[in-house]
Amino acid sequence: PCSCRSAGLLPASTVRLDREKVSSIGKLRRLAEIHSLYLQQNRIEKIENLDSFPNLRFLCLAGNRIQRVQNLRALPHLSVLDLSRNQIRVLDAEELPRSLRILDLTGNECTRQEGYRDLVLAALPHLLQLDSQPTHGNAPEEEAGDPSSSEEEDEELLPEPRIPFTVDRDFLAAVQRELAGRARRRR
């Protein structure tokens, strides 16, 4: 049957396996060309084997059965992470990659932890948006006094994602364009 998710409609760097009744992330060969992975609305219980995607920038695991944030430190380029609507009771912020710019944990019990937002912001210095809310430059200043680092740059926000942002296929492209533009301006 014809599907709107056919390979011809998506960039080669994107893998969509949403709503496919996937129950686990198996070990795969190294897939360095994959930048975006959609695994929302499945039956995944554990975050694992993502080191097969070393250049992953966008990961959606919304609407699964995940209970712990783990095994994400192997993704040094991850910018956008959607773990909304899972079963995460307690968040270990040290397990989150420091490269994150956008993080969504709405619909998880961990968001009701005392000091949750402060804990996440302290662990993720470059975060621009948490649970669909801008962080408003709450990050600690990087390299104070360094003229090459600009405070204004840190306070710029990415385009507001639509809720849920995982539905909008153009969103990742906008994030990548924004980050590439910032990299060019830094140079």
TrEMBL record:
Keywords: Cell projection, Cilium, Leucine-rich repeat, Repeat. It comes from the Eukaryota. Residues 140-158 have a biased composition (Acidic residues). PANTHER family: LEUCINE-RICH REPEAT-CONTAINING PROTEIN 46, PROTEIN PHOSPHATASE 1 REGULATORY SUBUNIT SDS22-RELATED. Residues 131-165 are annotated as: Disordered. Its main location: other. SUPFAM superfamilies: L domain-like (SSF52058). It is found in: Cell projection, Cilium. This is LRC46 protein. It comes from Dryoscopus gambensis. Coiled coil: none annotated.
